[in-house]
Design brief:
Blueprint (H helix, E strand, L loop, with lengths): L1 H14 L6 H5 L6 H12 L2 H12 L1 H31 L2
């Protein structure tokens, strides 16, 4: 049982937590697990990931613009090759 919990914890707790503190409003003793999750995420982040996050945040307007155009191009490609074609192209 511990092995399954240990295997599922990173996704179930660290990757899906919104870290917005709303859990503290439902907790009878106001524990904000989001703060704990933020610390765990900090520990597991690599230096390269932190550098990329900083670059993206400094250039967020450009990042948003680029991603919006990438999504538009993806939708345009799907309208030409269809959903099945798009799934074949993007399959890993």
């Amino acid at each position: 049982m511990y092995a399954a919990l240990d295997a599922d914890f990173p996704y179930m707790a660290l990757d899906t937590c919104a870290t917005d503190g709303l859990c503290a409003t439902a907790c009878p003793v106001s524990i904000d697990t989001g703060q704990l999750v933020k610390r765990f995420r900090e520990i597991r982040s690599t230096a390269a990931a932190k550098q990329w996050a900083e670059r993206i945040s400094r250039h967020f307007k450009l990042t948003e613009f680029t991603l919006r155009w990438a999504l538009r191009l993806g939708h345009a490609a799907q309208s030409v090759i269809g959903l099945d074609g798009m799934q074949r192209v993007t399959r890993c």
